[in-house]
Amino acid sequence: MINQYGRIAVDSATELEELRAVGFNSEDFETLLRRALTNYKTYEAQNDWLREHVATDEQNIFLFLETKQPLTQAVFYCIAAQLLGFTEALAGNGYNGVATFRQLGLPIATVNNLRHAWYELLNSHTNNGLLFIDELASQGYFESNNHRLLFNGKSLPTYNTNDLIRESVWVETSVDTDNDGRFDLVQVDIIRPNTNEKLPVLFTASPYYQGLNEKENDAKVHDVNVPLTRKDTHQSALSNLNQMEETVAKALARQINGYAEEASVIFTQEAGKPVDLNQYFLSRGYAVVYAAGIGTRHSDGMQDTGSPEQVESMKNVVEWLAGNRVAFTDRTSNIAIVANWSNHNIAMTGRSYLGTLATAVATTGVSGLKTVISEAAISNWYQYYRDNGLVVAPGGFPGEDMDVLAELVYSRIKDPADWLKTKKQWDDFQANTEKFTDRVNGNYDYYWDTRNYLNQVKNIKVDMIMVHGLNDWNVKPRQVYQLWSALRDLPNVKKIYLHQGQHIYINNNRSLDFSDQMNLWLTEKLLDKDVKVNEILPTVTWQDNTTEDAWHVLDEWGASKKGKYYIGNNVLTTNQNSGELNFKDWLPENQFAYYCEHFDKWRDDTITGKLPTNQIFKSETYTSERTVDGEILLNLRVKSSQNIGLISAMVVDYGNDTYLKETPTNQGVVIDRGVNFSPTDLMSFESEKSAYKMITIGHINLQNRTSPRQNDDLWPNQYVDLHFELQPTYYKMRPGHQLGLIIYATDFEMTIRGNQSIAYTIDLSKSSLDVPFTCK
Question: Catalytic residue positions?
Fold first, then answer.
């Protein structure tokens, strides 16, 4: 099924004008067809193609055309299915092209208006994941004349990617993180088509861009096999500690010695791996800009993960691109240069850390930034490395923390002279970061508050695109859910895409026209063309977790009311229960050591009930479909045998069935991002058989039952009441399945692992699960 949302309806006059502009203005079907055979340069070669393909299940196209038979809808769509590459699907439908188009979800028009039908065909996706007109372009249909050509509201790849300008400049920031009395300079790499047109800009702020220190990163990873410790009762302060203000007051701007028309530094290849979505837009007349920011190679400053200073440095790049800040041609001459090629309309793009900084810069309200396309982005760093008073790792990265990530991207290490000069300062800076993050405490305090961008959401003035995987246990779904909720009452236009993948991009997914949608989006946001994109693109686009290639349009995410399950003796029921259940958070040393190295196996054994370190509760078997929409709330009365304790919880879908894989499968097809430019693999989510699927997860320190800021007292065998939300989701439960709740303590992948002999007791009479169900 091909899900296309990035299409606009235009009137017949506009269709004719656009068809004329792309050379498809004929009313003769054979003329249109032969013109679409881009790879076949002679009339005879085209005839060979026509003889190899069918017009009906009994006649090839060549004979059909030679005998001058009337064009019917059946013939048109039989041929159209082959032009789009859906030959296998066509054969499976007995060479019924109309049925094939319906099966694929592609538009069908009457052939009485041939030009309209052809216009619709050019706007249909091929089996190779591109619009038909884009696929023709990738085969060299258009001359790369470096001029913008819009078709159905989207820029076509008409810019020459073999003649791109690649240049570097140094933006003077508003921060002095190395305390040398001068504002930090950051290197900015620009890749742009060689044209006299003013170009819209895609800016990706990527601390990874200038290289990674993997060896140094690995050496700094923290030991997570440490005991949970008791915390003194107190509430963390949220002071206005802001070192940036102190250092900025002492720093001096550089004296401009003159201006240059051209950059002094050029490059032939990007320092880091380009973002595929950016590559897609390079051939469509957009400039692409990368900056790694302060504390990275060829730039000044110290690397401080997610800090106000880091955000400010990236904001300053936006200001230069918008014509509101100075940049220099190098780091010493003080010769200034302006972005005279920019139209001063900027979008920020990127996934993970890249999308995080895009979101953060948006919260500054900086002028010139028109929109953000953030994927798998962090909105609150506390929720990335901590959770409810616990030190919690992103999935797959036990022992990582703010200082570890900073070590990974402090790429100044890679230049020997720079490293010798900054090593002592960097080591001291990192020691200070480790002290501030306080892995023993795990509480939310002023350090984390300055790295919580949700505090400044009210300052976002731009329209937002958010993309997130509902199975992303690295940057967990709460990051985007809380941002989405905070934006709900603001006037900004916001769109969200919820897919079933992990920590991935979705712009190369076969079943969704994400790149097309972003093309349409940026036409309005950066080119100032009114294509009604705010109304056309869905507010919430959700990938169905039960069916391959199925996407649905939703009005909202997380609006459902919660229904209550009571926790009973290994069951979830609608009736309140009584009694107690126990489990001990301890394993024999050899088993503990094994699971520390194989936490995927630990999770499977936990879900299937093979371990004594948890309790599992299951609902009735559902007889009808229902959907979990939002955050599940766990209400738990529990006691620990010691004066410390933590609780983890998983919610699981139990049912022998097919489930979408969390990692999409390579389809063996390469998508061209221009003409022989930056090919990328076409991906699709496929299914596999399983007996269960983890839906969501959550963790809490028993001493932080009031809030992540407050340490409550805890005594051995003292019952306490916990109320905490698990990671939000949108998940369809099918008939014949059961909802399962697993309560345990140590999470071998995410929490610290002390293997302490702590016994936990659950009071069933005061324990329940609030599930935001929508029923069909």
Answer: 352, 472, 503
